[in-house]
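[INFO] parsing input record for Protein-export membrane protein SecG
[DEBUG] input buffer:
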Amino acid sequence: MVLGFSIALIVFSLLLMLLVLMHKGKGGGLSDMFGGGMQSSVGGSSVAERNLDRITVAVGLLWFACIVVLGLVIKSNH
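[DEBUG] output buffer:
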């Protein structure tokens, strides 16, 4: 059981990193230093960006739940 949740945690971690890196830079941070702030936003976020936000939040919640369950399983084994 611990092995299954550990593998799921690794998969969700990699997926979460990929999803976060897919987001557009909002400006005012490191993205401006490397030329990310040169683009102007046209009328807010697109449908694709909103869907990416929703998917990122869902994967983040699954990642958090996996950590909690893994912690509880490890604690109950000791």
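[INFO] Residues 47-77 form the longest helix (31 residues).
[INFO] shutting down worker
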